[in-house]
């Protein structure tokens, strides 16, 4: 809607001070001509907005103009108030801030907006905890120290638990990531950006040394790139099975398996499946008993025979 777009233009200009018509058009996914028409509309409403020509030109608001926004739509309310689970806020020590923010927002909201917010919080809830009784806990004091170091650009000294030893490490912290309830610290060590599991940090001490944060570092992009790179390096185990055709649909409907190929040869059905671990492929064969046979890899066949012998001896 045009009204939403006009508000978006005002917000973008307040945040960025000045933007070209092309950048506004790209951000709002409209034509440059539409942007100029919107600028005329804003100007006609008395908004002090101007367009400067030239290489360094652009669209900007005059002076310290600010607007209080009351035209927030339903999707925007969703983005602000959809419940993200209390665990993250509790870990970060800002659960009370959420409550005070809600009160401030509700105090200046219309009755329709208040009803929408109540609906959002009653219709959707995101639970960050696992089904296990051993839910992930974090040392909130250490997490608070990490946050302080990140915000204030202080270098850190940490004691980090390796598999068989504790190592002292000096870091320049860049950010924190929470994945399925687990917290990870992204930091520079010896000029290399590394990832540290917060639950393995036994102590964290702020130093008075200030570091220069890389101006081009983007936490979200780094995390996506590093996790993608990590996944690509995980070895894959390719299995070829000869199966009874009667279970083909069952296999095709199985979740969390990667079927690479299905072939038929001389009345027999073969399925190629890729697994992250050898034991997964062997366990998969056990699931269907006589209706499935491992053809490749040979090492899996030998391991399966070994397991079968152990089971027979046990019973």
TrEMBL record:
Protein's name according to its UniProt entry: WYL domain-containing protein
Superkingdom of origin organism: Bacteria
Signal peptide: none
One protein family per Pfam: HTH_11
Domain HTH deoR-type: 2-57
Sorted UniProt keywords: Transcription, Transcription regulation
Keyword Transcription applies: yes
UniProt source species: Romboutsia weinsteinii
Protein's UniProt keywords contain Magnesium: no
